[in-house]
Amino acid sequence: MEEGVKQGGGCLKLFGVTLTIVLAVVLVMGAGFWFLGNTIKQQFAGPTPETVAQASLAGLREQNRLSAFAAKFVAVVTSKQSQLGLTAQKTMIMPGSVRYEVDLSKLRQEDVRWDAAKKRLTITLPAVEAMGPDVDLDQIRQYDNGGILLSVTDVGGKLDDANRKAGQQELLRQAQSGPYMRMARDATRRAVERSFAMPLRATGIAADVEVLFPDEAKRPTERWDESRRPEDVIANKW
């Protein structure tokens, strides 16, 4: 009788050990499948908004300068000079064009902010600069009063130099006026918005893109991970 009980107890112990081993194997296999599934999920999951923004930022920096707007102007300037009781006068009509540029090399990573709650990407650009002017030399027209002073002295050359300098300053003055700077800002804003919005849409990320200039920028409410350089994002170095 005791021998039967002992044999029964041994069987129960053996069954318990076997059950423990089976459970351990099942747990190990389950953990392995979970790890494999999680790895595959991470491997094939789409990029995050921060990753896309970093890649777009790196692409913009490589352009160095962005020119999204240009305008043509005409300056009309007159210079006078008196010598020996005589006065000479020359008028110059100077057409020229001005490019409006943003120095993208000044863009910093903190200038690009992602607001997860609002699903909004905000980019703060450097200020727009009026570059030039590029004077159309073939279209310059000059008029003078035909005085004796222009014939017998070098006043004519001095008046030309003064007109050229004043004409370039006048072209820039017109270019930097409010309406043209606003148009340049709007054109630059649209170009940069497309540069960030198109990659986001291409990866299936629904987000609003907002482009601001220094005088429009707000204090950041959320910073995204700066542990990776844009160069690493482009090279896909994880």
UniProtKB/TrEMBL annotation:
Instruction: Enumerate the transmembrane spans.
Output: 12-36
Q: Does the keyword Transmembrane apply?
A: yes
Q: Which InterPro entries match?
A: DUF4230 (IPR025324)
This protein's UniProt keywords: Membrane, Transmembrane, Transmembrane helix
For region Disordered, the annotated ranges are: 218-238
Q: What is this protein called?
A: DUF4230 domain-containing protein
Task: Please give the organism.
Answer: Sphingomonas kyeonggiensis
